């Protein structure tokens, strides 16, 4: 508990009379499951705060608020429990101040939620005190969403803290202390500060490093670097920052590991030490430079990062780019691993460290999952907020530097920082400063580049030879007009570089003939571009403008080559045994619109050659509710029974709709396909309608994988020569307030007409026949043995084998389960089955479900059903069912939830 008596002198520096004052009370954001912070975690598939124990929660309990020594009325905002509105008895006029006194208690939460709070060694606190909101064109209020972006004004702090003697206080303010027999009193003070961080530990964890201009206190340490080397590195970083920004008006720079770990150098700090390809000094230098530059900017440029995060992120990442360019120009993206015998043949091994910025942007942009830089930070997907948007903002500054030329950008940054440090500022002030230093048009940057997610995409469309020159046609392939850089190369060296503007459709330029062997757009990756593969033109006469290159597994795109990838492929089913093959495809690490794959294979058990292929084209839409349409055809051949194979051919169209926002994890799509199946039959049998058939399938699917209330439903219809049917599959999963899982599923299916013979196309109660061959059964024809016990929840969803297993008219089934303890659940199922010329069959069952990983690894133990007490019957182990998938894509999608 923190027992706090706080006095705030609030000065109204606006031109508006204020009738109330809003206060940020972020310590109260940990009080329970209805706070904005808890709901934010649920969106990120984190339920630790939602189901937290009482002792791990945190809150702020207000005892009294007075203004100018008179008790004041205040309220907590509805649905924003971490914001207070305090009413004034008299309006606060411009340029006047009031004295606000608050008595309150803060219960410190567990640090596992945000990195700040109670930890194993003590307490690390940030946003622990009440602070006034900023009034600028209205109150700038914001709830704690674990974004570490509280908008505060610069403040003078004078803090007295009394602690037990066994705790040592380290903080971001200047301090001195005095001791008594049982307690220590710390006095903290600082002018023009914001964001006071406190660390109470039993032993000191922060070390002080002295530079020529500042003292740096940090617990981000590397044992391999001695103090002198560390201070040399830190001195270099500070000198570099001063050269770009000028004098830093804060003497003490406080870098804490908790904050730094939430803003890491991705790709640098995630790898364990024993496989890290970078030197210790490089890792420490880049990690600390990012932390210091971020702290440098955040503490002195008072910007609403919730609304205009791009400005600070852009400046910070631009400084990172420039720092690496100056001190580590030759370091590779993969570090020392680039020179290993296996990786050095790959194009990714040739990328410089700074080339990760356009690469990661293009990785997301090709999927149309990027967002505009003016999107509010709380509306960004996690991947965009943590990585992509920061990179695009940094590249935007490099783009401006290249386009404006000289030192225009660096001069503007320097002047902007010096004029606005320790003041509330915004992006408009930066634009005004930039406009003063150039006559070139910069509206494209502040409009389309920042405000939209339009993709830059230019190409060399045509080159015509004349006597002594080349006529080069540059084409704008998309709906944004920005400056572009054109290069002429000779022996891979730049001989010509020129910027062109205002190309909204095409532009023809003339270059001398014979002076260049390659003409390239955006050769240095100065700006982020949607597609760079068509930016190259070779002036040498070749049969192919780009030769073919075969590469193992995957690689980044090589602009000089047409790439084809190959990789080993391993599969398994009971009849083929281990399936070894080779997959050939054209899919690099960054997605393409046209994709093809062919995968021949050899089965060791059946000694058969089989495999699969697919060709598909992704068409993306930017202005409609449709996200993309995929057109394709796929086929494969495998064994479905001993010594019997099947072949499938499936032309299909998928229509995927856009999510409400990229923070919405739901998906919605329509799938239409024709499935043609041709099965081998035994020489002793005659082919029937069940061995060679075609089915047209049309389905609508909705998936909302919310971690508390998950909803999925599927409407499907199938049409074939001898039958047609319609079905709905509705699934709902909920976690109760006690973290008990409730799982419900309803399946209803009916034949519209059915002239088929037997039960091959019927609805299955305990196991679908899977005549479309879309379920991953390891032994699809097995009637006994372990593979017959594989369970995939579909159609009836029963686990027990009952006397009536199929329905050729209609089926209604309800599957349910309730959590008992952790992953142990009790399931209960009922169903109604109707067959021609038979009475309605009512089925029921129950049992124990071990739900280790939902729909990936589960085990079912039947207890009681129409068969009686199954647990007492013979051969009970054969009645146990299991769900298991080796589908790596499904497993990957399960664990990556909430990041993209």
Helical content (DSSP H or I, runs of 4+):
10-25%
Q: Please provide the count of β strands.
A: 49
Give the terminus-to-terminus CA distance: 37 Å
The gyration radius over C-alpha positions equals 33 Å
Estimated share of beta-strand residues? 35-45%
- Low-pLDDT runs of 5+ residues are none
| Sheet with the most strands, sense and barrel status | 18 strands, mixed
What's the shape? globular
Instruction: Figure out the total of helices.
Output: 11
Mean pLDDT across the residues is: 93
Category from helices, strands and their pairing: alpha+beta
Give your account of this protein's structure.
There is one protein chain. The protein has 900 residues and is of the alpha+beta class. Helix content is 16%, strand content 40%. It has eleven helices and 49 strands. The protein has an 18-stranded mixed sheet that branches. A hairpin with a 5-residue loop joins β33 and β34. α5 packs across α7. The radius of gyration is 33 Å and the shape is globular. The two termini are 37 Å apart. The model has no long low-confidence stretch (mean pLDDT 93).
Top keywords for this entry?
16% helix; four-stranded antiparallel β-sheet; globular; 49 strands; 11 helices; single chain
Q: How is this fold's topology laid out?
A:
Blueprint: E1 2-11, E2 18-24, H1 36-43, E3 59-67, E4 70-71, E5 74-77, E6 80-92, E7 97-107, E8 117-119, E9 122-125, E10 131-132, E11 134-135, E12 139-140, E13 155-164, E14 168-171, E15 174-179, E16 183-193, E17 198-201, E18 207-210, E19 215-218, H2 227-245, E20 252-255, H3 257-261, H4 280-298, E21 301-302, H5 305-327, H6 356-365, H7 382-404, H8 408-420, E22 423-424, H9 427-436, H10 443-451, E23 458-465, E24 469-476, E25 484-490, E26 493-500, E27 506-512, E28 518-521, E29 536-538, E30 548-552, E31 562-573, E32 577-585, E33 594-603, E34 609-620, E35 626-641, E36 644-657, E37 667-679, E38 692-704, E39 709-719, E40 723-735, E41 741-754, E42 763-764, E43 806-807, E44 810-821, E45 824-834, E46 841-853, E47 857-865, E48 868-869, E49 881-884, H11 888-895
Parallel strand pairs: 19-20, 21-22, 30-31
Antiparallel strand pairs: 1-7, 2-6, 2-10, 3-4, 3-7, 5-6, 8-9, 9-17, 11-12, 13-16, 14-17, 15-16, 18-19, 23-24, 24-27, 25-26, 25-28, 28-29, 31-32, 32-33, 33-34, 34-35, 35-36, 36-37, 37-38, 38-39, 39-40, 40-41, 41-44, 42-43, 44-45, 45-46, 46-47, 47-48, 47-49
